[in-house]
Amino acid sequence: MSSSLTFDAVSHRFGAEEVLRDITLCVPESSCVALLGASGSGKSTLLRIAAGLLPPSAGQVRIDGEDVTAVEAEKRETGLVFQRPLLFPHLSVVDNVAFASRMAGGSKAESRRQAREYLELVQLADYAQRMPGQLSGGQEQRVALARALARRPRILLLDEPFSSLDLGLREDMYELLETIREQLRPTIVLVTHDRREASVLADTIAVLEHGEILQHAPVAQIHHQPASPAVNRILGGLNEVLGVIRAGVHHSALGRITVAPDTPDGPALLMPRQESLQLTGAGEAPARGTVTQIRPSGAHTLVRVTLDAAADQERVDVAVEVTGTPRLSRGDTTGVGLRGTAGWVVPL
Amino acid sequence: MTTVTKPVPSSRVPERRPQPSARRASVSGWRRILPVVLGAALLLWILLPLAPVLLWSVAGQWRAPAPLPGSWSSQALESLLSPEILQAGLWSLALGMSVAVAATTLGALAAFSLHRLPRTLSRIVGFLLLTPLAIPPFALVMGANVLLLSARVPTFAAVLIVLTVTALPYTTYMFSVALASYDWRFEEVARTLGASRVRVIRTVRMALLAPAIARAGFLAFLVGWSDYITTVLIGGGQFRTLPMLLGSSASSTGGEQLTAALSLAMILPPVILLAFLARWGARGRISP
Question: So where does this one cross the membrane (chain B) (predicted)?
Answer without folding.
Answer: 33-59, 90-112, 124-149, 155-182, 203-225, 258-278
